[in-house]
Amino acid sequence: MLRCRMGRSATKRAPKKEPPSPSKQKTRDPTAHHSPYHIFTSEETVTLRKELLAWYDRSKRDLPWRRLAGAEMDLNIRAYSVWVSEVMLQQTQVSTVIDYYTRWMKRWPAVQDLAMASLEEVNEKWSGLGYYSRGRRLHEGAQKVVREFGGQMPRTAEDLQKLLPGVGRYTAGAVASISYGQVTGVVDGNVIRVLCRLRCIGADFTSPAVTDALWNLANGLVDADRPGDFNQAMMELGAMVCTPKKALCSECPLQSLCRAYKKVELDSASSLNNLVNGRANTQTSLISDVEECAVTSCSLCIQPSDQWDRSLGVANYPRKSAKKPSREEQTVLCVWERPGELGVSEYLLVQRPQKGLLAGMWEFPSMLSEKTLAEKEREDILRCRLQALSGSDVSIKDLQYVGEVVHIFSHINQTYLVYFLHCASAKVEDAEHPAMRWVTRTQFMESAVPTAMKKILKFCESRRFLSGGAEASRKRKKDISDIQLPAGKAKVDSKQRSIQSFFKAAVKK
Fold this sequence. Notes:
Elements: H1 42-59, H2 64-71, H3 75-88, H4 94-107, H5 111-116, H6 119-126, H7 133-149, H8 157-163, H9 169-180, H10 189-198, H11 208-221, H12 227-240, H13 259-276, E1 327-339, E2 345-351, E3 362-363, E4 366-368, H14 375-390, E5 400-408, E6 412-422, E7 436-440, H15 441-446, H16 451-462, H17 470-474, H18 476-483, H19 494-497, E8 503-505
Parallel strand pairs: 1-6
Antiparallel strand pairs: 1-2, 1-4, 2-3, 2-7, 5-6, 5-8
Helix pairs in contact: 1-12, 2-3, 3-4, 3-9, 8-9, 9-12, 10-12
């Protein structure tokens, strides 16, 4: 581990006075368990605020939620609009969110409008954005604001976090600082990366001690005159300059304050010196003339077992924590097609329960399946499921196996075993059940269906199982005979090849 020197007087420095935290939970004093090496002096804080805000004013992206928040005088609409944007941006790229946000705000421009919407309407607008519980919680929160607070959004970060479902410490701080000018910091993935590099924080940032330290740093840095702009500037810097890989250090307004950047420079100089003098150049370079943390077992430092990787540069910070393995699941699913009016094909959809994963969304009939089940067993389970839904007899011989579709959720690796069923006549009875419906392809694409279902529909189309209308129905026998050729013999056009990496095609038995 790299060593450093620190003056004795540093241990006597009084803790910095912190602005109010956006949460009532207590945070630790940042100097209690580690050295001032990991915090900012008052002079550094002044410089950081000045340089960061100047850069933000020059370089910030023109985003719809920023325009709305900057122009809107009604505090309720402003806070609501920021709240929507922050929830949509969780785990989702800005480029993806822009169109969703624009459509959402056009449909529901105020919290009262969203409160009056149905959950199904909300799911339809959210469809394709992922992490669907976010939309449901926004809807629940809007209804609570109207029902319990008379349409008035909570005015502080503490109340936002305490009173609104799904609003955590970060979202509360962002909404309060941007909408109301509350002097409170925020810590998201971008801010974590920026702070860890600025102060060489290499410990696991998910640990309580490091989390507390990062929040303390963020609260101590925030500019009291422009808290909303400052927080957005920190996040913008992490998104545009201090990126996870290939950080643009030469464009960074905070380069002079960045300890990780200085370490990279000194490490490069040390390597060059070793090369000139003929000494061995190892992966771990021991730098003796750089000030670093000298506190034994510092809770914020890279651990001795973690070597400095010269090839990563500033990306040595923050250290990635061990990722919890995703759960593996297998689901058997059927795309059931029937001819509808005017020869347009229709597909059976079933609504998921109102709680849990993908709550309230529509999907093809499916059942979780144990991986140990034999093929005939899972087909029989699927047949029983279809009969229960439709009230009609379904024969196993009519179920045609299409192949596998893999879809990755945030914590689940889901494998769909896809079957196809075509009903040549219109005798399948519509069960009088609000959680079941027949839809055309156009209606399907406009419904609140998860991305996985759209992927499955395209898969079946690419394998030429779906009719797609009266004319296609007449060609269906030929198409299916094509698909049942031995593996490697079926004809696949260029459009089909573009999605083959996602799927495993059915193999004739």
